Amino acid sequence: MIFLSTLIISLLITIALTPLFSSMALRFQLVDLPNERKVHQVPVPRVGGVAMALGAFIPLACWNFQDHFVRAYLLGAGVLVLFGAVDDLRELSPRFKFLGQTAAALCAVFVGGIRISSLGMLAPENYLLPEPASVLLTVLAIVGVTNAINLSDGLDGLAGGICLLIFAGIGYLSYLVADYTAGLICLALGGALFGFLRFNTHPASVFMGDSGSQFLGFSAIVLSLGLTQGSATALSPLLPLILLGFPILDTLTVMATRISHGRSPFSADKNHFHHNLMALGFLHPESVLIIYVFQTMLLLAAVALRFYSDWTLLLGYLVFSLLVLTGFARAARTRSTVRRFEFFDAKIAGRLRLLKSEGVVIRYSFRLFETAVPLLLLITCLVAQRPAVYLSVICLVSCAAVLAACRLKSAWLPGLLRFLLYLLIPFSVYLTREPVAHLEDGIAALYNGSFGAVAVLIILVSKFSRRKSGFRSSPMDFLICILALVVPNLPSQGAGDVGVGVVAAKILLLYFSFEVLQAEMRGELKRFALWTAASLVALAF
């Protein structure tokens, strides 16, 4: 239960703090202003990183602060968040940025015991780096990757989505080798990122800022090094290169380009991969989605090749890098742009736009969606094990509060429903683990498959919605599909496995389903409230 609690608490804290910090940032002008190098056109608050950090730190400090590695991680990450927040406020010079990054890296090395001591098969057998070389290489790696993620934060949802995929990979590898501390941290980070991406997908209403991007980069490299270094693991020490390969390649390419043109490697420009994709003619969401696909390919390769020869991993990464760089170089040399296929634009995209304007798809898909989602929650509550008596009482009191707010048409009803659902969903899904396992195979498959169907409906409704605000279709749909289709089908580690990943996937899908549903209802919440009240009663009894 501690793993699930960590995920949910980090998600809820981030969702609660992000709009609060955003309103404060707008009031005090703590915003990212547009300029010729940036893609956004209006000032955007850049306080999401602090909300994410608090969302991840609080459950880790509550559940696992006694763990030495967790304390070291929180110390180093806290240093970076502090320096990053000051940078977001006052625009620190590169010297002070590196000072903060180096301080965080030294915390990881000397307090957390993180070392790059083994190069695997790239060095002679059983060879370990001397202590000074190990410390220096580790600090350089941590500082380098921290900056790589920081520099990748150029489009809405880009750095957050990349890091969510990275932490999913690290978390799964941690689970496979029974490194539950790293897995717990990944769950906290995953929950915080899902909460943040709720506000950061295109068009973003908040940015993570340097505090967020440096925090994520530090977390990714420290966790991946901790997982793959040391005598207790059979994982290849080159896995961090694969897991973090795309932002690393982007940063090295940009810096090499700047140096070749006689400029500082730290000067600002628009030569990152995401800028190149947009220069080729891809739209903002398309560029983000393409990079998500590249990162997913590397993630799957890391999991599949985790026990392969280090030379195989290195060669595979070099081939991947060569293909990516060759593609961009050829496009730049020939000044190519994406050819929009007339058939696609006229027949497919045009037809989709027509369907959206006519409202046919949204009308029928939403009718199904507005019934399917509350019905799925009600069935989940009916299938769930009976909770403790005091929880049943809380459910009944909450039901009475919902009915009263609905009857009185209270302005508190939307907030009350969101608060109750964010508590009801995780508890009800968690309490279905054993009952679903004892259902007949066909019924269990139908119940579990309904979550995949809901994921498809989320995308349809958000894609064809004619709303101008609220939850919209974005590259995050890709992350939702990965969550719905991949997580439940990952191999488990034995008969005693309780399927925490499946439970988490179901919870997150229901969360996003109700976000879309509440946005589409445009304040008409009576039926929504009655469904919620029925689910509370079903769980109570």
Task: Give the structure's gist in a few sentences.
By secondary structure, the chain is mostly helical. The protein folds into 2 domains: 2-334, no CATH class; 358-540, no CATH class. Helices cover 73% and strands 1% of the residues.
Write up this protein.
The structure is a single chain. This protein has 541 residues and is mostly helical. The protein has two domains: 2-334, no CATH class; 358-540, no CATH class. The chain has helices at 2-27, 48-64, 68-90, 94-111, 131-152, 158-176, 180-200, 209-228, 239-243, 245-260, 273-279, 284-304, 310-334, 342-358, 360-383, 389-408, 413-430, 433-437, 441-464, 476-485, 500-521, 526-540, and strands at residues 31-32, 44-45. Strands 1-2 form a two-stranded antiparallel sheet. Helix 4 (94-111) crosses helix 5 and helix 19 (441-464) packs parallel to helix 21. The longest helix is centred in the N-terminal third of the chain and has 26 residues, at 2-27. It starts with a helix and ends with a helix.
